[in-house]
Design brief:
The protein has 282 residues and is of the alpha/beta class. Helices cover 40% and strands 14% of the residues. Helix 1 links the parallel strand 2 and strand 3.
């Protein structure tokens, strides 16, 4: 696929996906959704991609849904011009299933789906120019992109409800205080900081371990008892423990040298992966 609404760039095993409609503050539309899906599929299939960073072109991250259809933007049945009832949900569900760590480097305004899509990313970082808004109550609709599941898990139910009830725009400092973002950086320092963190995930770590960890952590958020985690932990340790990566991890430690892991996500995942029931979009 040739991309127009995003930029896809891989450097040093790190993929940067840049939302690329700067003339519209990277407003989210069907083309952008389709291209991001394709990019995630491509990244999952590429063993050279070991971490993913999302950011925005220009001065914004994502201004939310493209409102160029006017008052019927969210009326999917009006005349075919409206957007998908929850295109953001399709995106965050895809992010939820991603095999690689995902970092958000929010460089500017992020409202509506621009904010909710980040809830499904593993680590959120912000520029001091970033602004967030869960503005749905002010548009006469409800939160989308599975944010009623993700957002309370990010910041707790009280903050999630306050932000969603009010629909107000808040700055990066408040996002940091409420632990929505990991850190806030000067505008020019954001991407270098995000890349430094991505390198921590991508260098001298087992790609198999990283993918397993990502899904163990996310999937266990919905478990009803720690026994469910114990069952997956035990199976994971058993199968990864006999792998070449585990042998290399221990041997490199004993020999006091950097590890050189050979395991590939595309071919070497444990035989029970995925262990969860695959869900279809409804």
């Amino acid at each position: 696929m040739d991309y127009e609404a995003i930029i896809y760039e891989v450097q040093d095993n790190i993929l940067t996906i840049t939302l690329n409609r700067p003339e519209r503050l990277n407003a989210f539309n069907g083309q952008m959704s389709s291209e991001v899906h394709n990019a995630l599929d491509r990244a999952d299939a590429d063993d050279n991609v070991k971490a993913i960073i999302f950011t925005g072109a220009g001065r914004g991250f994502c201004a939310g849904a493209d409102l160029s259809s006017g008052s019927e933007t969210f009326d999917y049945e009006s005349d075919g011009r409206g957007i998908h009832p929850d295109g953001g949900g399709v995106l965050t569900l895809r992010l939820f299933e991603c095999l690689k760590p995902v970092i958000s480097a929010c460089n500017g305004p992020a409202v509506g789906v621009g904010a909710t899509m980040q809830c499904a990313m593993d680590i959120r970082m912000a520029s001091d120019k970033a602004r967030y808004g869960f503005v749905f109550s002010k548009r006469g609709i409800v939160p989308e992109a599975c944010s009623s599941w993700f957002l309370p898990r990010c910041v707790g139910i009280n903050t999630a409800l306050e932000w969603a009830y009010s629909g107000r725009i808040f700055d990066a400092r408040e996002a940091l205080e409420k632990r929505f973002v990991r850190s806030v950086h000067k505008e020019n320092d954001l991407m270098p900081a995000a890349r430094d963190l991505a390198h921590e995930f991508a260098e001298q770590t087992s790609s198999i371990s990283i993918t397993m960890i990502r899904h163990m952590m996310w999937k266990m958020l919905g478990a009803d008892h720690p026994m469910e985690a114990h069952k997956i932990d035990s199976r994971g340790v058993y199968f990864t423990g006999k792998s070449e990566d585990a042998h290399e991890g221990v041997q490199s430690f004993l020999e006091k040298r950097p590890a050189e892991f050979s395991g590939k996500v595309s071919t070497d995942m444990p035989e029970f992966f995925p262990w969860w029931e695959q869900r279809k979009f409804e």
